[in-house]
Amino acid sequence: MTQTAHRAVLLAACLSALMTAPTSAQTPKPSKPVQAIQTAPADPVGDLLRSQGERYHRAPDSSQDPDELRRTQALNAEITAQNDLAENEDRANAAAHAKAQARYQAELETAEAEARATRERHEADLRTAAEAQAAYDRQMADWRATVAACERGDRARCNAGRQTPN
Q: How many Cβ atoms sit within 10 Å of the Cβ of residue 12?
């Protein structure tokens, strides 16, 4: 369940509580001063509504209809269970995502290492090919020089370049 869905469920619970709560005409006037009401035990719904600029006063449970109170508590328990389930699902999804991310990172590092090794092999092959080409070019230049020497009549150079038959 997404955070938006959680907020919607909480808002529905708040509205349900407000709809089932007695109106101010039905609520007896508190005998305690207003300051004492504000320091009452924590009321998350009331705190939420007050933080959003709402005026909210939760009637004591003793002044509420027992059947409505039971239904409200059952609904709250159901919402809490759904929230807990969603929280557990979110944790499981986060763990699965972290595991998949770690697997992806490992695969990425492996692929990068393979690409780096392939690139290094390719560069080594290019160097070897360049060295072989340079050696070939030197040999061809020497052969051409020998052929030119033979054509000019330089027998010493011409004989030096001949290979003896096996």
A: 12
Please name the residue that has the structure tokens 């697997």. Answer: 103
**Which has the closest alpha carbon to 28: 37, 19, 41?**
37
Q: Are 27 and 34 spatial neighbours (Cβ–Cβ below 8 Å)?
A: no
Buried b (16+ CB within 10 A) or exposed e, 85-95: ebeeeeeeeee
In angstroms, the CA 118 to CA 120 distance is 5
Section 120-147 average pLDDT: 96
Over the stretch 61-86, which tens digit does the pLDDT of each residue have? 777 788 888 898 999 999 999 999 99
3-state secondary structure 32-66: CCHHHHHCCCCCHHHHHHHHCCCCCCCCCHHHCCH
61 residue type, one letter: D
pTM of the model: 0.41
